[in-house]
Design brief:
heterodimer; A: 117 residues; mainly beta; 7-stranded mixed β-sheet; 4-stranded antiparallel β-sheet; 50% strand; B: 109 residues; 5-stranded mixed β-sheet; 9 strands
Chain lengths: 117, 109
């Protein structure tokens, strides 16, 4: 089956630093990847959609200069949280969609727990 | 995409069938019904999806009413490991997945 990995699985950083999270589709090429954020006891909130080789589309209220998304290849997308603050502490989850032949499928990574001190 | 309504929580006895309902009365003709689940502190896991017909796979069955305004996810023999938040999502094929609050299913021994 399709596998999506994330690295790191958890990270602790100091306020003001930047953190990069990687999302990889291991056995398929992902033309589209999605980034979600989930606060404790809440549902997943879509942050942005990225298509390989083009700029990400951000959801309303998500700061594109703070959450930098790069989707440089068909198997890798990265999310960089710039100048992180304690309120950015959350569970970040990526998702990948295979090529257009299987538009109904979307597979999720295991998530990255970010704690900003 | 159409909105969905799910009960906030449900309990089920281990070994019994778990029937999770979902209302989607404003669903359009080109929108699919998807079910995902999220076990605590993990990423969501795809369960099943359907358009009109009932669907079954190794994990679950999806029953969609004839008018498509509601559906039921059936886990035929629930185990403790099925305890999770279950999300019913309605969307057109190319659209993004937007998660609602979901149903917390607690399977008890």
């Amino acid at each position: 089956g399709a596998v999506v990995s994330q690295h790191p699985s958890w990270v602790i950083c100091k306020s003001g630093t930047s953190v990069k999270i990687e999302c990889r589709s291991l056995d398929f090429q992902a033309t589209t990847m999605f980034w979600y954020r989930q606060f404790p006891k809440q549902s997943l909130m879509l942050m942005a959609t990225s298509n390989e080789g083009s700029k990400a589309t951000y959801e309303q209220g998500v700061e594109k200069d703070k959450f930098l998304i790069n989707h440089a290849s068909l198997t890798l997308s990265t999310l960089t949280v710039t100048s992180a603050h304690p309120e950015d502490s959350s569970f970040y989850i990526c998702s990948a969609r295979p090529p257009s032949g299987k538009v109904n499928e979307q597979f999720f990574g295991p998530g990255t727990r970010l704690t900003v001190l | 995409d159409a909105k969905t309504t799910q009960p906030p929580s449900m309990d089920c006895a281990e070994g019994r069938a778990a029937n999770l309902p979902c209302n989607h009365s404003t669903i359009s003709g080109n929108e699919y019904v998807y079910w995902y689940r999220q076990i605590h502190s993990q990423g969501p896991q795809y369960i099943i999806h359907g358009l009109k017909n009932n669907e079954t796979n190794e994990m679950a069955s999806l029953i969609i009413t004839e008018d498509r305004k509601s559906s039921t996810l059936i886990l035929p023999h629930a185990t403790l490991r099925d305890t999770a938040v279950y999300y019913c999502i309605v969307r057109a094929a190319i659209n993004k997945l937007v998660f609602g609050a979901g149903t917390i299913l607690r399977v008890k021994s």
